[in-house]
Amino acid sequence: MLSSQGHIKLTDFGLCKESIHEGAVTHTFCGTIEYMAPEILVRSGHNRAVDWWSLGALMYDMLTGSPPFTAENRKKTMDKIIKGKLALPPYLTPDARDLVKKFLKRNPSQRIGGGPGDAADVQRHPFFRHINWDDLLARRVDPPFKPCLQSEEDVSQFDPRFTRQTPVDSPDDAALSESANQAFLGFTYVAPSVLDSIREGFSFQPKLRSPRRLNSSPRTPISPLKFSPFEGFRPSPGPPEPMEPPLPPLVPPPPPPSSTVPLPIRPPSGTKKSKRGRGRPGR
């Protein structure tokens, strides 16, 4: 898209794949078929070279008015992308033809930008020989087209097929029940404290957990204890200011004096008669 000053703005990253570094391979299948690289369609695993194929398909679309491979249905479009012949109009300049063909190489390792040079190989192509990339990035280049806008809400540059439609809000279902709403507790948009804990380090109340879990947990203001591998198997000491007074320590009673006759042990109530019966002959 174009900004109000005519500079390019990239949008719609909802389906982008992050952290695809050199040597990384992914198998995600998503995107618009007409702009997807053949290695995505055959699901053989792909890397960031698929972005250069998509750029070539977009460049072809901007130069000719349609994507390079199209058909009457999805299946035939995919077949053309995988094994169809690329047709280039005669009115394209030699540099444009060469760059499009290099973008649309079916072998990712032969595709321009797909090698170790990445974007630098694309920037050095003769098609871009008049581009100062530093000035372009800093927006010091005078854009060839500046949209004429009356206000920030001016949509005159958009396709009338969309702007003439009556805006309709998405249906709003009834409020969630209390039990259903429990599934969303702790999400960052309702719990700013989660973001704070990420910045300051995770914290939790000390509980009886496995030694491995305790040993890997940092100390926090809530739990100013230094855990050892064996503290998960014994109760932790109480806080400095307990809510209830501590119980006195258990001290065993002193042994009775030697002159004192030990008290008899009272038998259970259910066996009194039997014990008395056995004691009578002794009298």
UniProtKB/TrEMBL annotation:
GO terms for molecular function: ATP binding; protein serine/threonine kinase activity. Residues 129-199 form the AGC-kinase C-terminal domain. Keywords: ATP-binding, Kinase, Nucleotide-binding, Phosphoprotein, Serine/threonine-protein kinase, Transferase. Residues 150-174, 208-283 are annotated as: Disordered. The keyword Protein biosynthesis does not apply. The keyword Methyltransferase does not apply. Residues 236-267 have a biased composition (Pro residues). Residues 272-283 have a biased composition (Basic residues). Pfam families: Pkinase (PF00069), Pkinase_C (PF00433). Residues 1-128 form the Protein kinase domain. PANTHER family: RIBOSOMAL PROTEIN S6 KINASE. This is Ribosomal protein S6 kinase B2. It comes from Phyllostomus discolor (pale spear-nosed bat).
